[in-house]
Amino acid sequence: MQSWMGKHIRADILYTKAGTAQQIRVSNEIGSVLVDAGDGLLRDIELADFDINQIMGVVFTHGHFDHMGGLYALLGYMRMIGRIDLLPIFAPEGCTEVFSMVDNFMKLYAETVPFEITCRKIKPGDQFQLAGMAVEAYPMVHYGDIEGRKLLDQVPAMGYRFSYKGEKIAISGDTGICPSLSELVKGADLAILEATFKYSKLVDDEILAKVHLSEDVAKEVGKLAKYLILVHKGPRKKTEE
Question: Whole-model pTM?
Answer without folding.
Answer: 0.95
